[in-house]
Each structure stands twice: as structure tokens, then as C-alpha cells.
Specification:
23% of the residues lie in helices and 28% in strands. By secondary structure, it is of the alpha+beta class. The strands form two sheets. The protein has a four-stranded antiparallel beta sheet with strand order 1-2-3-4, with no helix packed on it. A hairpin with a 4-residue loop joins strand 3 and strand 4 (73-77). The longest helix has 17 residues, at 2-18. The chain is elongated and about 65 Å long.
């Protein structure tokens, strides 16, 4: 019995290492993360959306913000007061609020 107890004690650190959560995406490792949200985007964004962590999704070219829920953090589309997604225009740095 003692040998199995020692084996279990030796395995606990390995199991704990496997259970370590991955680092949060907000650490700036994602190239899509916007370091400074432009004033135009801030003006278009509806209230109650956090602009602390914002990214531009390469799939659609739109701004998405990180919503911190009670269970997990997830990215949601950044929307205007009219509930339209805020996107960038291809080949044009000017912002456009597009239907979404």
C-alpha cells in the first residue's frame, strides 16, 4: 500500500500541470488585438460594451470586444446603438457601420 501511495504522490504534480489553464488571450499575443481603440469606434459603440480588449477579426474585418461572463470570456461583435456591427472597409481606413 505504501508504494502505491508514493506513486500517487509523485503523479500529483504532473496531473496538476495538465490541469493548468491556458494563458488568457488578452495578453497581447494575438495580432488582431487593437492596442488603442480609435475615437471613431468609441463614438459609434453602444454603451455596456467593454472596450478594454478589442480585436479585428480577420474573417469579417469587424471589431469584436471581449465580454467577461460569469463562466468564461468570449468575443462578441462590437455594435452601434442601432445594433449594427462596426467594421472596417477593405482598403480604406475609414470606419463603416455595416448591417450584420
Amino acid at each position: 500500500m505504501k508504494a502505491s501511495g508514493y506513486a500517487l504522490a509523485a503523479l500529483l504534480p504532473l496531473i496538476a500541470a495538465c490541469a493548468t489553464l491556458p494563458s488568457d488571450e488578452t495578453e497581447g499575443t494575438d495580432p488582431g488585438i487593437v492596442t488603442e481603440v480609435p475615437e471613431e469606434v468609441r463614438a459609434l459603440a453602444a454603451p455596456n460594451q467593454s472596450l478594454a480588449v478589442v480585436r479585428i477579426m480577420p474573417e469579417d474585418g469587424c471589431y469584436w470586444y471581449q465580454h467577461s461572463g460569469p463562466v468564461e470570456n468570449t468575443f462578441l461583435p462590437l455594435r452601434t446603438r442601432e445594433n449594427r456591427m462596426i467594421c472596417t472597409r477593405p482598403n480604406d481606413p475609414v470606419l463603416a457601420a455595416t448591417g450584420g
